[in-house]
Amino acid sequence: MINDVINELKTKCKNSIEAFSKDLSRIRTGRATPTLLDGIRVNYYGAPTPLNQVANVAVADARLLTVSPWEKSLLGDIEKAIQASDLGLTPNNDGKIIRVPIPTLTGERRKDLAKQVKKLNEEYKVTIRGHRRDSNDELKLYKDEKTLSEDEYHKGLKRVQDETDAYIKKVDEVASEKEQEIMDF
Length: 185
Hints:
- This protein is α+β, with helices and mostly antiparallel strands and 185 residues long.
- 58% of the residues lie in helices and 15% in strands.
- The protein has helices at residues 2-25, 75-84, 107-144, 150-184; strands at 41-44, 47-50, 55-61, 64-69, 92-93, 98-101.
- A four-stranded antiparallel sheet has the order 3-4-6-5, covered by helices on one side. The protein has a two-stranded antiparallel ribbon with strand order 1-2.
């Protein structure tokens, strides 16, 4: 019973860390990565569609992304969508593909990005603590139903807290790596 609660907590926390890593990949570091454009949606026949579903995004070199739409009629819409994003990128359309140069980051912009990482870090810590609360509530329910003794309940609470601490530490490590990447590149 306690193991079921712990396993469910682990699954939820792992999913949260994966989502955190994915969100962090959208924060630019001065290095070109295709995931940088993942959050961009293009107007495709009246429906907002993710960029990677209407075009091929590739890394030409360390500071240049290329976007090759599958339909040439989308070039203008893709260019507008990239300009409208809050990434601060200026795409160049040559009529066949769109080149997106990744400018170097200023010291001030690096600090702003590091703040974004810290904010996301806190949000995901709160999410993991919410998973802890849910697990503790489930253990309390088992105790109230008399399917769990008082000693087992307290052992379960300790295990839940230990797992939570480990995952919060993991979130901090992932955030620290991203901050380091932002400040170094």
